[in-house]
Amino acid sequence: MNILTALGLNFALLVGIMLILWLISVRIRDVSFIDAFWAYGMAIMASASFMQSENPGSLAYIIWALTALWGIRLGTHLFLRWRKEGVDPRYKKIMGRAMDKQGMSFAKAALLKAWVTQIPLLFIVCLPAQLGILLAGADSPGPVAIIGTVIAVVGITFETIGDLQLKAFRSNPGSKGKVLDTGLWKYTRHPNYFGDFCAWWGIWLAASQTGWPVWIAIVGPLFLSFTLMKWSGAPLLEKSLKKNRPDYVDYIERTSGFFPMPPRKK
To answer: What single string gives the DSSP state of each residue in the chain?
Structure first.
């Protein structure tokens, strides 16, 4: 199948799913579960690409497996957290601003401020996986792809451990109002974001064996890195934590902001 046709079908599938989820969000008046679908959506795009591949080899299987593992693990983690905690204050603020200041209905605000904006971003970030699977053919992984696979596995493992440590910390009543600074959180303030970073750079590196279209698709991990490090990831979260956790400023002074490093001595 033509690559552009396959990508077009993937995009159409993504739009269709997003519209269905938008209708669900309007019915329950909450868009917070969009974060879970961000991860699930990556797995769906990779799976759709794999299903359109003819005689996929081990490289295609590896790229698909890495993306599916990352997406299903993170998506389930975020979905269960949403089911437990309810409406995310970030989205409540976004929706409230659109409705109060711009006069939008909930349905319009949910469509324009949440679901529609996520469609191109999700598709672009996942483009290396989609292209890698579609272009891999019957190829086996070479040295660069193997290195990328190792990086992605390290990232998924790192993120999973970090999330488990944070979940255990939050479930302990004695942790209320405190800052998690043990385990992986001793070496970076954002083990989960660093894990995402490694996972998607690893997937891009594994897929880069297939040629120049994936090289151009480096825009995917670049945008994700910008999002995690400079835009809606770490900066937005830390702005809130500094307001609500007095000890967080001290934590910032002694702990690396993103890449794992030994704690700084004060």
So the answer is: --HHHHHHHHHHHHHHHHHHHHHHHHHHT--TTHHHHHHHHHHHHHHHHHHT-SS--HHHHHHHHHHHHHHHHHHHHHHHHHHHH-S-HHHHHHHHHHHHHS---HHHHHIIIIIHHHHHHHHHHTHHHHHHHHHHTTPPP-HHHHHHHHHHHHHHHHHHHHHHHHHHHHH-GGGTT----SGGGGT-S-HHHHHHHHHHHHHHHHHGGG-HHHHHTTHHHHHHHHHHHHSTTHHHHHHHHHHH-TTHHHHHHHS-SSS--PPPP-
230: tokens are 């400079």
Per-residue 3-state assignment (H helix, E strand, C coil) for 207-228:
HHHHCHHHHHCCHHHHHHHHHH
Start-to-end CA distance of the chain, whole Å, equals: 59
Q: Which pLDDT tens digit goes with each residue over 178-227?
A: 889 999 999 999 999 999 999 999 999 999 999 999 999 999 999 999 99
Nearest Cα residue to 201 out of 150, 165, 265:
150
CA distance 79 to 33: 6
pTM listed for this prediction: 0.93
Q: Could you give the CA distance from residue 264 to residue 266 in angstroms, rounded to a whole number?
A: 6
Residue whose tokens read 């497996």: 65
